[in-house]
Each structure stands twice: as C-alpha cells, then as structure tokens.
Design goal:
The protein is built from 3 helices and no strands. By secondary structure, the protein is mainly alpha-helical. The protein has one domain.
Length: 72
C-alpha cells in the first residue's frame, strides 16, 4: 500500500461508520467498473459482442424482432 493511500485510510478511519460505509461503497463501485471495463475490452468479449450484434441485426433484417418501446 502506498503512503498516500495509508494517509487517506487513516483519515477515513476517523469518520463516523456511516461515512466510512459510503466511501467504501464508492470505492467498490469504482473497482467493479474497472473490472467490468477490463472484461468488456478483452478480445474474447469483443468477438462475442460483435457476434451478438451481427445476430441481432440479422434477426431484425428478417423481422424476427419486436418493438419493445410500445410495451413500456
């Protein structure tokens, strides 16, 4: 752990529990987003997304899809 992070954690430890929890949730969200971004950027994910998009376009071209906006 870096010295900067140690100082910040030390400051957070002095906060009330509800504020510590709020900061922890924010940090967890940021970490989750980084993990998600990494997964989506992987070559395997890109190939899968391209294949799924091609399938969706093909189904739409063949009128095998339906408009979901009318059911909102």
């Amino acid at each position: 752990m870096t010295e900067t992070l140690r100082r910040v954690v030390s400051e957070i430890e002095r906060l009330p529990p509800h504020e510590q929890d709020a900061i922890a949730r924010e940090l967890q969200l940021r970490l989750d987003e980084r993990e998600w971004d990494s997964l989506v950027r992987s070559p395997e994910s890109q190939r899968l997304l391209e294949r799924l998009a091609a399938e969706a376009r093909s189904e739409d071209d063949k009128h095998e899809t339906r408009d979901l906006t009318s059911s909102l």
